[in-house]
Design goal:
about 140 residues
Length: about 140
Amino acid sequence: MKKIIRFITITTLAMAGCGLGVKGDYSYLVHYVYVNESSSEITVRSVIPMEKIDDIEHTFTLPVNDRCTISLHSDYYPRPFCCGSQKDYLTVSNGTKTVTQRYRYLDELYVEDNYTLISEEHRVKTMQYVFTDKFFNEEEPIE
């Protein structure tokens, strides 16, 4: 009986040491802060297309000179707006122009390198993205 218990204990410890079958107790948190320094109110809409149920949509509006924080947590540092589907997309509108960004193309808002790191300590980051009028310069007006 001692051999069986010893075998189970050693096997469990070995699996834990290799990360097999035992989930770590770490959690990572990222606060994504969105700041509107453009001359118009903007609306950001994130869409995650689903196959068998309604699409998942999240929308937030940023008045001029305001900010919004979205906090995401996971067992790794989560990317902005990302659920990992190649079909995910965003629309950002200032009332006269709309910019569409797609995850599959790794457009600007999906790439953490386009954000400014504000702080980082013990598995918690704060990243910031600032919207300006330049964000909308390349887009055609809404008709």
